[in-house]
Amino acid sequence: MTKREAERLRLEFEKGIYVKKSTTIMCVAFALCLGVFLGNLLTVIYSAQPPAQQTRAVQQTQPKQPQVSQAQASKIIDLERLTRNEPDNVSAWQQLGNAYYDANRPENAITAYNKALALDDSSADVWTDLGTMYRRAGQYQKAIESYNNALKIDPIHANALFNKGVVYVHDLKQKEKGIVAWEELLASNPSAKTPQGQPLKEFIDAHRK
Question: Is residue 62 part of a domain?
C-alpha cells in the first residue's frame, strides 16, 4: 500500500465511512436484544387481547332467564313436591299451574293445567288460564280452543270472552271474530270494562275503525 492510499484510508476511517469490527458486534447484539424485547412485548399485547373479547362475546350470548322471586321459587318447589307425592291432587296441579303462571313460565304452566284438567275438566277458570298460557307461548289456535272450552262451561265467562277477542284481533288478525267475542261480553254485561278501565263499548268502537 502506498503512502497516499494509507493516508486516504485514515481520513475515511476518521469520517466514519468504515465501521470497526467491535462496533459491528455491538450493533448486532443491540439489534438482537431489541428484537427479542419487541417480540416479547408484541406477544404479551397479542395474547392479552383475545380472552377479553371472548369473555364479552360469551356474556353477550348468555340466555336471559325469567326472574323469579325467592318466595315464588319456594312455592313452586313445594307444589312440585306435592304433585309428585299426590299425583291425583287436582287442586295441587291447579296451584302449581298458577305459580308457573305468576313466574312467567308458560310451558310449565301449560303442563300443570293440563294435568289438572285431565283429572277434572269442569273449571272454566282453569281453561281460561290455560288459554292465556297458550297465547303467551305463541300457540294461538290452542288458546282459542281453551277459551272455547271455558265458554262451554260458562258461556258468559268475562275473561274467556275478552281474551278470545284479543287473540283473534291482535294475534290471528281476524278482527271480525274478535269483535264478535267482545260483543257477546258486552251483551251479557253492558257496563263491562277492559282491564285498563276503558268502557268495553268504547273499546269495541275504537277497533271498528
Answer: no
Is 90 exceeded by the pLDDT of residue 176? yes
Does this model's pTM top 0.85? My answer is no
Do 79 and 154 fall within a single domain?
A: no
Asked whether residue 208 falls in the same domain as residue 174, the answer is: yes
**Is 64 a residue whose pLDDT tops 90?**
no
What is the CB-side half-sphere exposure of residue 140 using CA atoms within 13 A?
A: 12
Which of 112, 192, 202 minimizes the C-alpha distance to 160? Answer: 192
What pLDDT shows up at residue 112? 98
Could you say which DSSP state residue 180 is in? H
The three three-digit cell numbers of residue 105, written as one number: 313460565
104 pLDDT higher than 50: yes
Q: Do 188 and 109 lie in a common domain?
A: no
Would 31 be classed as within a structural domain? Answer: yes
* pLDDT reading at 17 higher than 80: no
Question: In the structure, what pLDDT confidence band is assigned to residue 3 with cuts at 50, 70 and 90?
Answer: very low
* Distance (Å, whole) CA 124 – CA 66: 28
Instruction: Find out whether 48 and 86 touch, Cβ atoms under 8 Å.
Output: no
Phi and psi at residue 199, in whole multiples of 5°?
-55, 135
d(CA 63, CA 83): 29
Backbone angles phi, psi at 191, to 5 degrees: -95, 15
- In a domain, residue 41? The reply is no
- HSE-CB at 188 with a 13 A cutoff on CA atoms is 15
